[in-house]
Amino acid sequence: MKRDWLKGAKSAYDVVVIGSGLAGMTAAN
C-alpha cells in the first residue's frame, strides 16, 4: 500500500517537474 502511494507521488512529481521545465523553456524563448 505504501509503495503504491510513493509510486503515485513520484509519477505526479515527475509530471510537475516536466511541466515546469517545459513552461520555463517556453518562457525563456
TrEMBL record:
Keywords for the protein's UniProt record, in alphabetical order: Flavoprotein, Oxidoreductase
Residues covered by the FAD-dependent oxidoreductase 2 FAD-binding domain: 14-28
UniProt keyword annotation of Disulfide bond present: no
Source organism (scientific name): marine metagenome
Name by which UniProt lists this protein: FAD-dependent oxidoreductase 2 FAD-binding domain-containing protein
GO molecular function, one term: oxidoreductase activity
SUPFAM superfamilies, per database record: FAD/NAD(P)-binding domain (SSF51905)
A family per Pfam: FAD_binding_2
Transmembrane segments: none
Record bears the keyword Transferase: no
InterPro entries associated with the record: FAD-dep_OxRdtase_2_FAD-bd, FAD/NAD-bd_sf
